[in-house]
Design goal:
Helix content: 40-55%
Number of helices: 21
Number of strands: 12
Distance between the termini: 56 Å
Radius of gyration: 27 Å
Largest sheet: 8 strands, mixed
Structural class: alpha/beta
CATH superfamily of the largest domain: Alkaline Phosphatase, subunit A
């Protein structure tokens, strides 16, 4: 019995050390972007995360325990061999998950989750954010790590099953004991509630708390919650009560708003800018070096200065702007044809009224199921990287912005009016490779981000200089908006609204002179574009039930956004972020009274319940 227990104890010790070293790597590679980070504050994460590490180990023990019983009943060497190769596979799987977790946090500021797994369907997208040397380096590191740890496991921690000595009863008794230990370990102890992430949170710094969370445990929980459950994981009250809440926040005393356009059938051009956070827009408090041209646009257009992206990914941003659909936790609705085709759409609304419609993107048309989604939106023309033949025009992600914008202009000059055309830029994205002169020098990610943002601004300048020469320009409304925010260049925390703040600008000579140069302070998201635009065109936007008219003075001013298992709500610059995994608010604005915090939290949870519930029935 003692030998059997030692066999499993040694393997458990190996995995605990294994996870600790990966946690050290996570801290080492991601600590640089964390303000006020100290290793003294990070050390407790190893101890607080130990319970979750052991829980994962206990899950891994189940197949080994079954093989152990098989060996007890009929001893054979093959059972030990299977057990060894099983653990080798586990070591390989853990290494892939934990390495991906390190990289994902660097780009997304989140642990590896169900959504990240869904992006594995687009391998080119996964590696496009890395340079060739980075990709090769990561592969080499992974191979070296695997060789080292598999050797270590075989040499010092793994022992074959022993031949059974004596009667079977004592051996099976030890097996029952190990099963009991494993069950207790899996649930994280003998406490009333099973293990959850709240039990390993130990401080007020989100990064340190996340470093204590075991990424394998987090991924398993996230997959189970998002991928397998048919129940709404965000349901906290009855659907009837939730409906009352939505009737209240979307109700208006009067459907009144200023008519800002000189005609009701203008051309519409949407310029969706990759990662163009407010931190690179001077008028929104950002860097003054990055958007000199956009500042002139803002001075002559209408700036909505309190717009926040509900999501953090391009596929979420596109669906928000075109369909008025806020970002959905866990799932990308763009990836589900049967759901996205049921969404209301600006493209369909305008196409049915005689508009010619088109979409331009310099990247892979199959990115995140984009091609299937665009086809379901009924665009008359879809242009992607495949439509460009000059390889000198391409970077890692695809065709650079200047060439895509030039192509759109050339096509619009041949277009029958009125037309609706959307173009998605991509250059302001890792690895930040853009052509032409360096506009903002520096080798840090922050400076590279600023430089590519300045490149996009320069391409917009050339674009509008050429557009003004076209006959259709005077009757065209340009809508300039970011697809989402970014933690760069200021090192923003993704859970907080500052990283979600984005520009939204209406621009063009079709805007009446008296409205040019004004600011709209009503808080909202870019999923409010459809209702705002369609009202100006005299089209009823009722089907866009998640979109509100930002120009109606009676529309409620609020922001809702999410980040997988969290839900956030902001009103009058007061905000909270609630985590369902730990069952409490993880961050909020200061100062904030307990009563106001409870009120905002309730609204955040009600909004998320309604949104996810709607997603499920689409």
């Amino acid at each position: 019995m003692k030998k059997n227990l030692i066999h499993f104890l040694k393997i458990a010790v190996f995995y605990v050390i294994f996870f600790a070293l990966w946690r050290l790597a996570f801290l080492f590679f991601n600590a640089g972007g964390q303000k006020g980070f100290s290793w003294a504050a990070a050390v407790p994460s190893f101890f607080h995360g130990l319970r979750m590490d052991f829980s994962v180990v206990c899950y891994f023990f189940i197949p080994s325990l079954l093989l152990f019983v098989a060996n007890v009943i009929k001893p054979k060497r093959v059972f030990s061999r299977i057990n060894y190769f099983y653990h080798v596979i586990v070591i390989i799987a853990i290494s892939h998950i934990t390495l991906a977790n390190i990289l994902l946090y660097n780009f997304w500021n989140s642990l590896i989750n169900f959504r990240a797994l869904s992006y594995l369907a687009d391998p080119p997208e996964v590696f496009s954010s890395l340079s060739p040397s980075q990709s090769i380096g990561l592969f080499a590191i992974l191979v070296i790590v695997l060789i080292f740890f598999i050797f270590l496991f075989k040499k010092y921690f793994f022992t074959p099953f022993n031949e059974r000595e004596g009667t079977i009863i004592p051996v099976l008794s030890s097996w029952v004991l190990m099963i009991a230990i494993s069950v207790i370990g899996m649930r994280g102890g003998l406490q009333m509630l099973p293990l959850n992430e709240s039990l390993v949170y130990y401080c007020d710094t989100n990064f340190l708390n996340l470093s204590a969370v075991n990424p394998v445990w987090h991924l398993m929980y996230d997959v189970q919650t998002a991928g397998l459950s048919k129940k709404n994981p965000f349901e906290t009250e009855t659907p009837e009560a939730n409906k009352i809440f939505f009737n209240d926040i979307f109700s208006v005393k009067a459907d009144t708003f200023p008519q800002i356009l000189s005609g009701n059938k203008p051309n519409i051009v949407v310029l969706l800018l990759e990662s163009y956070t407010a931190d690179v827009v001077a008028s929104l408090g950002g860097d003054k070096r990055t958007d000199p041209f956009l500042e002139t646009v803002i001075s002559e257009g209408i700036l909505f200065d309190s717009i926040y992206a509900s999501g953090t990914r391009t596929d979420q941003g596109i669906v928000s702007v075109i369909n008025g659909w806020p970002a959905t936790p866990y799932h990308s609705i763009m990836r589900s044809n049967e759901k996205s085709m049921r969404l209301p759409s600006i493209v369909k609304a305008l196409g049915s009224r005689g508009y010619e419609t088109s979409f331009y993107y310099g990247g892979d048309k199959n990115f995140s199921n984009l091609n299937a989604y665009n086809v379901s939106q009924s665009y008359d023309r879809i242009v992607s990287k495949d439509n460009f033949k000059n390889e000198s025009e391409a970077g890692r992600w695809g065709i650079h912005d200047e060439f895509v914008l030039q192509r759109q202009l050339e096509d619009l000059n041949k277009e029958k009016e009125p037309f609706f055309s959307a173009v998605m830029t991509l250059s302001n994205h890792e690895p930040f490779d853009v052509p032409g002169p360096t506009r903002i020098a520096g080798n840090t990610d922050e400076d590279k981000f600023r430089n590519t943002a300045a490149y996009t601004d320069a391409t917009l300048k050339t674009y509008f200089e050429n557009a003004r020469k076209q006959a259709w320009y005077k009757n065209t409304l340009f809508i300039i908006v970011a697809d989402h925010g970014h933690h760069l260049p200021m090192g923003r925390i993704t859970l907080q609204p500052f990283s979600r703040h984005i520009p939204l600008i209406f621009y063009g000579e079709v805007i009446k002179p008296e409205f040019r140069g004004i600011r709209i302070h009503k808080a909202g998201g870019h999923h409010d574009i459809p209702a705002t635009l369609l009202k100006q065109l005299g089209i009823n936007p009722t089907t866009f039930s998640w979109s509100k008219n930002l120009l109606n003075p009676y529309t409620r001013s609020f922001v809702a956004y999410q980040f997988e298992e969290t839900s956030a709500w902001m009103e009058n610059n007061n905000w909270v972020v609630y985590s369902y995994n730990i069952g409490k608010v993880v961050t909020h604005s200061y100062p904030l009274s307990p009563a106001l915090q409870d009120s905002l939290t309730t609204k955040a949870k009600r909004y998320m319940q309604g949104l996810y519930g709607q997603y499920q029935v689409y």
